[in-house]
Design a protein that fits this description.
With 285 residues, this protein is an alpha+beta fold. The protein folds into 2 domains: 2-123 and 273-282, Diaminopimelate Epimerase, Chain A, domain 1 (Roll), CATH 3.10.310.10; 129-265, Diaminopimelate Epimerase, Chain A, domain 1, CATH 3.10.310.10. It is 16% helix and 41% strand. It is built from 4 helices and 18 strands. It has an 18-stranded mixed beta sheet that branches. It is globular and about 50 Å long.
Length: 285
């Protein structure tokens, strides 16, 4: 099976082109095996590029634990680059079918005729608690107390087609590394809190100014990742809801920066960032 490894700000995925050949028969198991960083290729998950009757292509994403996700912001940017660079569809605006509907993607092509950056219309945020889904109070739940293992966090919950919990913290909480890494310790616990029936992506955020934040992420099904595109969009929305940040925001993630905007006119969140192809290979059947 031929594959390509790509990343958006270090959030890395294995891509398999299923437009000309059948998809793998057991993508859940394949994702677990190929994502293993010691015995496989190593990635945050597996993304299948499939034909679509509604759009230019369809994206299916499987986390490193084999669970299927609805959407991935960094993943869709890399998918768009693959589709353009490998000649599947050669046009500057693509339509991609995802688990949260058809999304519009605009490509920034460099002088070498390869995609360098991608701007994605991520759609409108989902703010009703039952649709996020969460049992936390409010539509949306905005800085609602959540008690996990005896500690209280104040959570703003948003869905960008997949569920997110945004928590504002002091800078020292974001320090990385070691067995006492707070993001890993508490992110893993919050992911599976009963208040989130489909689990949740967890983001810890420090605000520098109304237009700039630093964030770290514990991703549902993948653990610590260097970036999360849908999560950064959720952080942009949460910042407006809590009055901490403005509608245009730069988010610093461990893997790099994303530009975000929650546009009032159409209620959609736009995300802009890079996409990189790392290498290609063949996975034995």
């Amino acid at each position: 099976m031929k594959f390509v490894k790509m990343h958006g700000l270090g959030n890395d995925y294995i891509y398999v082109d299923c437009t000309q050949s059948p998809p793998p028969s057991e993508p859940e198991e394949l994702s677990r095996r190929i994502s293993d960083r010691h015995f496989g290729v190593g990635s945050d998950g597996l993304i299948l590029i499939c034909p679509s009757e509604r759009a230019d292509v369809r994206m299916r994403i499987f986390n490193a634990d084999g669970s299927e996700a609805e959407m991935c912001g960094n993943g869709i940017r890399c998918l768009a680059k693959y589709v353009y660079d490998h000649g599947l569809v050669r046009k500057p605006t693509l339509h991609v079918e995802t688990g949260r509907g058809v999304l519009t993607v605009n490509l920034e092509v460099g002088t070498d005729e390869r995609v360098e950056r991608v701007r994605v219309n991520m759609g409108s945020p989902i703010l009703r608690a039952e649709e996020i889904p969460t049992t936390l109070a409010g539509d949306p739940p905005c800085e609602v107390p959540l008690i996990v293992a005896g500690r209280t966090f104040f959570v703003t919950a948003v869905s960008m087609g997949n569920p997110h919990a945004v928590i504002y913290v002091e800078p020292n909480f974001l320090s990385q590394g070691g067995p006492e890494d707070a993001v890993a310790l508490w992110g893993a616990r919050i992911e599976r809190a009963p208040e989130f029936p489909r689990r949740v992506n967890v983001h810890f955020v420090h605000v520098h100014s109304p237009h700039e934040v630093t964030m770290r992420t514990w991703e549902r099904g993948s653990g610590l990742t260097l970036a999360c595109g849908t999560g950064a969009c959720a952080v942009c929305v949460a910042g407006v809801l809590t009055g901490r940040t403005q509608r245009r925001l730069r988010a610093h993630l461990p893997g790099g920066d994303l530009e975000l905007e929650w546009v009032e006119a159409d209620n959609c969140v736009y995300m802009t960032g890079p996409a990189v192809e790392v290498f290609h290979g063949v996975w034995p059947d």
